[in-house]
Amino acid sequence: MEDIALAAGVSRRLLYHYFPTRAEYFGAIWQRVHVQLRQVVVTAEAPTVRDRVEAALVAYIDFFRTCLPLVLISNRSSISADPAVRGPVNENMEALCAGFLDAAGVHGPVRAPAEVGFAGWITFVREAALAALVDERISLETCHDMCMHVLDAAVGSQVDLRVPPVDNPVPASVGE
After folding, report:
1. In the CATH hierarchy, which top-level class contains the domain 22-154?
2. DSSP summary character for residue 176
3. pTM of the full predicted structure?
4. Tens digit of pLDDT for each residue in 21-34?
5. Which of 6, 16, 64, 120 is least surrounded by CB atoms within 10 angstroms?
6. How many CA atoms lie within 13 A of 102 on its CB side?
Protein backbone atom coordinates (compact mmCIF):
# COMPACT_ATOMS: atom_id res chain seq x y z
CA MET A 1 0.00 0.00 0.00
CA GLU A 2 2.94 2.30 0.65
CA ASP A 3 4.16 1.84 -2.94
CA ILE A 4 0.66 2.60 -4.24
CA ALA A 5 0.41 5.75 -2.13
CA LEU A 6 3.84 6.88 -3.34
CA ALA A 7 2.93 6.27 -6.99
CA ALA A 8 -0.35 8.16 -6.52
CA GLY A 9 1.41 11.06 -4.83
CA VAL A 10 -0.65 10.79 -1.64
CA SER A 11 0.15 9.82 1.91
CA ARG A 12 -0.38 6.27 3.05
CA ARG A 13 -2.74 7.64 5.68
CA LEU A 14 -4.94 9.23 3.00
CA LEU A 15 -4.97 6.00 0.99
CA TYR A 16 -6.05 4.06 4.09
CA HIS A 17 -8.70 6.69 4.80
CA TYR A 18 -10.46 5.81 1.54
CA PHE A 19 -9.45 2.14 1.44
CA PRO A 20 -9.05 0.77 4.99
CA THR A 21 -7.87 -2.63 3.69
CA ARG A 22 -6.02 -3.99 0.67
CA ALA A 23 -9.14 -5.95 -0.21
CA GLU A 24 -11.22 -2.77 -0.36
CA TYR A 25 -8.60 -1.16 -2.59
CA PHE A 26 -8.62 -4.08 -5.02
CA GLY A 27 -12.43 -4.21 -4.86
CA ALA A 28 -12.53 -0.57 -5.95
CA ILE A 29 -10.16 -1.33 -8.81
CA TRP A 30 -12.35 -4.22 -9.93
CA GLN A 31 -15.44 -2.03 -9.77
CA ARG A 32 -13.80 0.53 -12.05
CA VAL A 33 -12.54 -2.15 -14.44
CA HIS A 34 -15.98 -3.68 -14.74
CA VAL A 35 -17.48 -0.28 -15.57
CA GLN A 36 -15.01 0.07 -18.44
CA LEU A 37 -15.47 -3.49 -19.66
CA ARG A 38 -19.23 -3.20 -19.58
CA GLN A 39 -19.03 -0.10 -21.78
CA VAL A 40 -17.47 -2.35 -24.43
CA VAL A 41 -20.48 -4.65 -24.18
CA VAL A 42 -23.03 -1.83 -24.20
CA THR A 43 -21.56 -0.33 -27.36
CA ALA A 44 -20.91 -3.64 -29.16
CA GLU A 45 -22.60 -3.90 -32.52
CA ALA A 46 -24.12 -7.37 -32.50
CA PRO A 47 -26.94 -8.85 -34.58
CA THR A 48 -27.90 -11.31 -31.80
CA VAL A 49 -27.74 -11.51 -28.03
CA ARG A 50 -25.34 -14.46 -28.41
CA ASP A 51 -23.02 -12.25 -30.50
CA ARG A 52 -23.15 -9.60 -27.77
CA VAL A 53 -22.25 -12.21 -25.14
CA GLU A 54 -19.37 -13.30 -27.37
CA ALA A 55 -18.16 -9.69 -27.61
CA ALA A 56 -18.20 -9.56 -23.80
CA LEU A 57 -16.25 -12.82 -23.63
CA VAL A 58 -13.59 -11.47 -25.99
CA ALA A 59 -13.33 -8.23 -23.98
CA TYR A 60 -13.00 -10.06 -20.67
CA ILE A 61 -10.41 -12.54 -21.94
CA ASP A 62 -8.44 -9.65 -23.45
CA PHE A 63 -8.61 -7.86 -20.10
CA PHE A 64 -7.47 -11.02 -18.31
CA ARG A 65 -4.54 -11.26 -20.74
CA THR A 66 -3.42 -7.63 -20.39
CA CYS A 67 -4.03 -7.30 -16.63
CA LEU A 68 -3.04 -10.76 -15.43
CA PRO A 69 -1.52 -9.63 -12.09
CA LEU A 70 -4.81 -7.98 -11.09
CA VAL A 71 -6.74 -11.05 -12.26
CA LEU A 72 -4.53 -13.32 -10.17
CA ILE A 73 -5.04 -11.14 -7.08
CA SER A 74 -8.80 -11.32 -7.46
CA ASN A 75 -8.93 -15.03 -8.27
CA ARG A 76 -5.99 -16.81 -6.66
CA SER A 77 -4.65 -14.68 -3.80
CA SER A 78 -5.39 -14.72 -0.10
CA ILE A 79 -7.81 -11.79 -0.48
CA SER A 80 -9.71 -13.26 -3.44
CA ALA A 81 -12.56 -14.55 -1.24
CA ASP A 82 -12.87 -11.30 0.73
CA PRO A 83 -16.34 -9.79 0.20
CA ALA A 84 -14.70 -6.45 -0.62
CA VAL A 85 -13.06 -8.09 -3.64
CA ARG A 86 -15.74 -10.64 -4.60
CA GLY A 87 -18.68 -8.26 -4.09
CA PRO A 88 -18.01 -5.88 -7.00
CA VAL A 89 -17.13 -8.77 -9.29
CA ASN A 90 -20.27 -10.75 -8.44
CA GLU A 91 -22.59 -7.73 -8.58
CA ASN A 92 -21.33 -6.65 -11.98
CA MET A 93 -21.46 -10.15 -13.41
CA GLU A 94 -25.02 -10.63 -12.15
CA ALA A 95 -26.05 -7.31 -13.70
CA LEU A 96 -24.30 -8.18 -16.95
CA CYS A 97 -26.09 -11.52 -17.15
CA ALA A 98 -29.42 -9.88 -16.26
CA GLY A 99 -28.82 -7.40 -19.08
CA PHE A 100 -28.25 -10.22 -21.55
CA LEU A 101 -31.44 -11.96 -20.43
CA ASP A 102 -33.36 -8.68 -20.68
CA ALA A 103 -31.94 -8.17 -24.17
CA ALA A 104 -33.20 -11.64 -25.11
CA GLY A 105 -36.64 -10.81 -23.67
CA VAL A 106 -36.43 -13.58 -21.07
CA HIS A 107 -39.15 -13.40 -18.41
CA GLY A 108 -41.24 -15.76 -16.38
CA PRO A 109 -40.35 -19.24 -15.17
CA VAL A 110 -37.48 -19.76 -17.63
CA ARG A 111 -35.60 -16.75 -16.18
CA ALA A 112 -34.33 -18.52 -13.03
CA PRO A 113 -32.77 -21.50 -14.88
CA ALA A 114 -31.20 -19.09 -17.38
CA GLU A 115 -29.72 -17.03 -14.51
CA VAL A 116 -28.26 -20.19 -12.99
CA GLY A 117 -26.87 -21.13 -16.41
CA PHE A 118 -25.20 -17.73 -16.74
CA ALA A 119 -23.74 -17.96 -13.23
CA GLY A 120 -22.22 -21.33 -14.06
CA TRP A 121 -20.97 -20.02 -17.38
CA ILE A 122 -19.22 -17.09 -15.69
CA THR A 123 -17.42 -19.50 -13.37
CA PHE A 124 -16.43 -21.66 -16.33
CA VAL A 125 -15.13 -18.63 -18.27
CA ARG A 126 -12.95 -17.57 -15.35
CA GLU A 127 -11.46 -21.04 -14.90
CA ALA A 128 -10.95 -21.60 -18.64
CA ALA A 129 -9.26 -18.19 -19.03
CA LEU A 130 -6.94 -18.90 -16.12
CA ALA A 131 -6.16 -22.34 -17.58
CA ALA A 132 -5.18 -20.66 -20.85
CA LEU A 133 -3.34 -17.63 -19.51
CA VAL A 134 -1.71 -18.86 -16.31
CA ASP A 135 -1.44 -22.62 -16.52
CA GLU A 136 -1.15 -22.61 -20.35
CA ARG A 137 -2.95 -25.95 -20.52
CA ILE A 138 -5.15 -24.75 -23.40
CA SER A 139 -4.81 -22.11 -26.10
CA LEU A 140 -6.83 -18.89 -26.10
CA GLU A 141 -8.65 -20.13 -29.19
CA THR A 142 -9.62 -23.33 -27.40
CA CYS A 143 -10.65 -21.28 -24.37
CA HIS A 144 -12.92 -19.12 -26.53
CA ASP A 145 -14.46 -22.09 -28.33
CA MET A 146 -15.07 -24.00 -25.10
CA CYS A 147 -16.67 -20.97 -23.46
CA MET A 148 -19.07 -20.45 -26.35
CA HIS A 149 -20.03 -24.15 -26.38
CA VAL A 150 -20.68 -24.06 -22.64
CA LEU A 151 -22.77 -20.90 -23.10
CA ASP A 152 -24.91 -22.71 -25.65
CA ALA A 153 -25.33 -25.71 -23.34
CA ALA A 154 -25.85 -23.84 -20.06
CA VAL A 155 -27.92 -20.86 -21.21
CA GLY A 156 -28.88 -21.62 -24.80
CA SER A 157 -30.66 -24.77 -23.67
CA GLN A 158 -32.99 -22.53 -21.63
CA VAL A 159 -33.47 -19.51 -23.93
CA ASP A 160 -32.86 -18.54 -27.53
CA LEU A 161 -29.81 -16.27 -27.55
CA ARG A 162 -29.92 -15.98 -31.35
CA VAL A 163 -32.58 -13.27 -31.16
CA PRO A 164 -31.78 -9.63 -31.98
CA PRO A 165 -31.11 -7.67 -28.77
CA VAL A 166 -33.86 -5.33 -27.60
CA ASP A 167 -33.10 -1.67 -26.77
CA ASN A 168 -30.90 -0.84 -23.76
CA PRO A 169 -29.51 -4.38 -23.55
CA VAL A 170 -27.05 -4.07 -20.67
CA PRO A 171 -27.16 -1.55 -17.82
CA ALA A 172 -24.09 0.71 -17.80
CA SER A 173 -22.85 -0.42 -14.40
CA VAL A 174 -23.72 -1.48 -10.93
CA GLY A 175 -22.91 1.29 -8.50
CA GLU A 176 -22.32 3.88 -11.20
Report:
1. mainly alpha
2. -
3. 0.82
4. 988 988 888 888 88
5. 6
6. 12
